[in-house]
Amino acid sequence: MQRVLISMMAEWCKPAGRVRGVLLDISGVLYDSGEGGGVPIPGSTEAVKRLKEANLKVRFCTNETQATRERFVKKLQSLGFDIALGEVFAPAPAACQILKERGLRPHLLVHDDLLPEFNQIDQSNPNCVVIGDAADNFSYKNLNEAFQVLIGLEKPVLLSLGRGRYYKETDGMKLDVGVYMKALEFACDIEAEVVGKPAKMFFLSALSDMGLEPDRVIMIGDDIVNDVGGAQQCGMKAVQVRTGKYRGQLYSWRNGS
Length: 257
Description:
alpha/beta
């Protein structure tokens, strides 16, 4: 990642250059998760530092749903990253806002460490299902309970905190939430509403916080569909790094011209 960013920063920072902000994916771009909190990808902490020193607005867009945003940020800070809570956009807080606005009461199929994000949400008599990266909670019993909630609703609503197929941890690739989301879609003959990447509103909320138009921002991620494709659908430039879940796909870049 560092070599890619350093080689491009000279162009970004020219007076006539249009790029004024950067959105960074986290897992697979800045660090690989795993036992003991994970490990930074070589050069990534320095790359974040140099981006900020270049007077570029930096935000972090992640589909991380195995911890609260506060806990996740503290872990990254302990790994040496210059990152603040207000700079991180994650699916769970966005989902909570949707639940409140629409009067939805969720049945939660999420990781145990994410549950505190939903403490202020009414979960009685569920009228929807929220699914995240539940890891070991993706048992037949738990998936079937989510199915039973959905199939019993006249108008079933499934909110998915991302739709990734897999991601990388220090001991290899892991199945992501999208695999289980698709199972519930198939069983209930419905389409999930995705909260997080690649949903357009998720990217636009980060752009709004930066106060920048899409053509002024570049997205850097390891997922050709959810990071690169999602950003390009919003009119942003996008780069796929060769770390994380990258498995030999072509380097992807759209210059917005």
